[in-house]
Structures are given as C-alpha cells and as structure tokens.
Amino acid sequence: MIEKYTFNELFKRFEPIEVNCSYCGLSAMDNIDDCYFLPLYVKKDSTNLIVYRSVKFAKILIGIPRCIKCKKIHFDAKKKAAIISLSFAIALFAISLYNMITIGPVFTAIGVLLALIGGFYANEKLQERYVVEKDIYTWRDGAETNYIIRDLIISGWSFEPPTL
Ligand SMILES: [Zn+2]
Known about the structure:
The chain is 49% helix and 18% strand. The radius of gyration is 20 Å and the shape is elongated. It has 4 helices and 7 strands, in the order ββββββααααβ.
C-alpha cells in the first residue's frame, strides 16, 4: 500500500503514484487535486490500522486517480441531481403543507416524509444515472474496482464510519 501511495503530510492524505484514471481507464491524471479522495474508516476493534511513520490511522483519505474529464462529469452530475431532487422535494413538501386542511395531518406527515426520503433517494439515483450515461464509473464503483481499495476493504476497512 505505502509504495503505491505517498503520504501528504499537509493534507493528511494518501496520494496515488498511479496516474491512469480509475473512472474511464483512458486518460491520465494531470493534477493530484483531481483525484477523488475517498474517506475509509477502520472498523471498530479492527487491528488492521494503517501505521505510517508510527502514526496510527482509524480514518484515511485515499486518492483514486481521476482525470479532469471524469472530475467534471462527477461534479456536473452532482449539481444536476441536486437541483432536480431538491426541486422535487420542495414541491412535494409545499403541496403537502398547502393541502394540510384537506388531506389531514397523517397524509401531510406522509407527504413531508416522502419529500425527504424521496429527495435523498432521487439525488443518489440521479447522480448515478448521469455518471453512468457518460460511460464512466461512479465515484464508488471506481473506488471499488481499484485493487488497493479492494485490499483495504478485505482487510477490515469500510466506506462507512463505524457506529458507536
Ligand atoms: Zn477519466
């Protein structure tokens, strides 16, 4: 792991030496800041902490090489999905509240809940769709196909923070 990555002391992150884009597999990364920096967490009670210069890490930021084109696709997809899902959520929220008298408190509550959950879900799904449409990996799929990330997941690291 260490020899494939260098540790950036300033930003406290692992930067890849590999420059081939993990998302499209076609282009090379020009700038290290175009990487997708994925936070990985060590599971509770895991002894597989990464030790680097005698510092133990329970959370690391690890850079997945990404070209500028893929960075832009990820960014645009995020923006587009956020605008659409937020508009949907606000509209449903407003309709539910506006019709509170006619539909009653139970349906109002259901409407508000649907607005929240639906908005969140739509945001995730739309983002994924816009990225896949462009024939590249989503940030997560690109990370999962990266063999170093795969090894870390197998040895007890996780995409989600440990629950207390
Ligand atoms: Zn790319």
